[in-house]
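Q: I have 337 residues here and want to know how they pack in 3D. Can you give me a structure?
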Amino acid sequence: GNLTKLTYLGLSVNELSGPIPPELSSLTNLIVLDLFGNKLSGPIPPGLSNLTKLTYIRFGSNRFSGPIPPELGSLTKLTTLSLGGNALSGPIPPELGSLTDLTGLGLNNNALSGPIPPELCNLTKLTWLGLFSNNLSGPIPPELGRLTNLTDLYLYSNRLFGSIPPQLGSLTNLTKLDLSFNRLSGSIPPQLGSLTNLVDFRLFYNILSSSIPPQLGNLTKLTLLSLGSKSVDDYNIEFEQALVNLRAEITDEAVKIERYRSGLQADVREMCRTSPTGQRWGTLNELAEYATLMWPVVETRLAKRKTSQPAKSVAGKRKATGGGSGRSQGQIVGSSY
């Protein structure tokens, strides 16, 4: 408490325990306060609001409990606030919406409850927002669509319900969007097809209705797509053709194809389901290349069908081939973050 000229205090990854001493609140020149990865416990002191020069707070992976002090909303120079991996409870204080210089906000892996306060949508400089693994409830605020600098949005493993706001389609800088393990319902908004920078998109374990909008075919940078644990009707051929870079081993309960666009379904699937050696295709790139080579054969079969009888639509099902557990189940295979 006597080090009043101190600007940087880094004590991360030690074995420190007990509460934050109240004397810390007298270090009014502090710019960085990093206590990550200790065994500190007790409440976060409201007196930290005296440290008005702070730009960086990292308290993650400790044992802090109790509510997030609303007084932290007065630290308006903060660019990073990381409180994940504790036992914090209660609502997210709407006062955090005053931290308009924040670029990163991590409140994940706590026991926070209540709705996502719409005031967080004032944090227009945010690039990373992690609220996952809490007990948050209520709808996703449509105002999140104002956070157009976001590259990473993680809301998974909460109790969020209602529809996915179409306003999320305005977040065109997003590379990762994870809304899995909630209670979201309704349809997938076609506006999400505007998120053309997405590489990782997860919606599994919700109660969304069963059609994939063809606009998702615009997401050509995707390497991981998880819509799992649901049936999908009207699986759009444009969607499959556009996502040629997507890893294609479809795992447990992922996709049930009910209808395709023509009677060619049976022929194309028969030829493209496996390689000539009987091995499953590893990527849609390989499948597409082989399908291109086989197109003359398809044309021949089509001509024969036209001269014989009308084609019948065929319902097909892709069996589960993968495994995994936890968040990996029901998703197209890819690396996790």
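Q: Anything worth noting?
A: The longest helix spans residues 295-308. Confidence is low (pLDDT under 50) at residues 230-235, 247-290, 310-337.
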